[in-house]
Give the backbone structure.
Amino acid sequence: MKSRFLLLSIALGLLLSVGLLVALNLPVHVTMARAATNPPAASAAVDETTTLSAQQAISTAYVVVRFGTHDTIVRPITFTEPISAYHALELSGLAFTTADFGYGPFLCSIEDVGDSSSACDNGTHYWATSVWNTATEHWDARWVGIADAMITETGHVEGFSWSDPNWVAIDPPPAPPLTAAWQALTWLETQQQADGSFGSPGNTAEVLMALGANRMDGADWSQSGGASVRSAMLSQSRALAATASGSGKLALALAAQNICWPYGVLQPLDYYSATTGAFNVDAAPHALAMLGTTALSQTVPASATAYLLDLQQPNGGWEWGVGWGADTNTTALALQALLAAGESPTSTAVISGLTYLKQAQNDDGGFPYDPASPYGTASDTNSTAYVVQALLAAGENPLSGAWSVGGMTGTMIISGTNPIAFLLGSQLPDGSFEWQKGLGANQMATQQAVTALFYRPFPIRSAALPLCEAVFLPFVARD
């Protein structure tokens, strides 16, 4: 353990660097915290807003935590006076542990990622901390400990990122799409219906995926103490799983929340034909069923992968249905399905698919549904969000010069001509997203944008789900 802490020996008598570990065998005290169960005393000032003087304005900041590739969350916090990064973690409601080696609290784990023991010995990882710089649009490393890193301004974004296995700090995704995704979730919550759903079973599933992308529990979302979105999804599950594509979407949603599978409801593999290799004859439903299969930690049959590969069009894209012509949405789903099933990002099929998407990109950085459509080729939020997910699945950076029309010039995240900038430009002040600019708030566009802005390709999470017939039989009738 001493060898792992060697780098911080130079910090004797000074504040801990958040990117290094300590090298001394001093008495250690481990602290575990979660704001929801043990709120800090200072937070009382935030709760008692009615007694605040006019000079004590409430500020909002964000805590961003990157647990790993394609696994980053955001939590808002409020404060009335400068607080430390340690206090920000307390206010976030996330469970975390620290150790005191004599130089102040050292961050050991967040939500059980890391080492919560007194040694705080994470093997070859550590928690790096940083702050988002709005001027440069980059994360700046913190060079002080979490008790001394201060948050003083509204809009501040504090980042915590689990390093790679070689002690190398990795920045979280850029802050603007993450905070935009949170604002979109806030708007989506207002669209929930009295039965806990968001309208159609497909919409309910997509909202559950959006919540799962931010590690939020659908059981906590309900209107006036009514049914939660989680229970609504289970009550709608049989209707959604009546098709191969719907079963795939249900699997993506339930796995994203790690919910058990309702008794008697068909899973994607129930639609698979060993004779044809297809879940469905059409590419989009087939791809969704493949993604649902991987979401349930089940193996996609090799013949199913071959079937999807055979449906690729000469221009590199995939068409939703036979004879429809290639489109960006089906191509994005097909690429994610192939990659999730084990296809190499350098395979001819993936490269050809990415080439098709690049050729479909508009000058505003966004993507249309069909770049050859006679009915219009304007960029839209849903198509762009699907493409962003496909790029992430393939290991592409949607903010890179390769996906920025005209190359990299000036500020790229907010005002650039890349897919992320297009999505951010489609968000309205209330947090919702337009399908196309000028058309007003659109629930489907908003729920699909959230997952992409959290930098989450499909599947959101893979989990072998047990049956839950004993608990949810009221929602699902027996055959």
In short: Residues 1-29, 35-55, 471-479 have pLDDT under 50 and may be disordered. The domain at 3-172 is CATH 2.170.130.30 (Ferric Hydroxamate Uptake Protein; Chain A, domain 1). The radius of gyration is 23 Å.
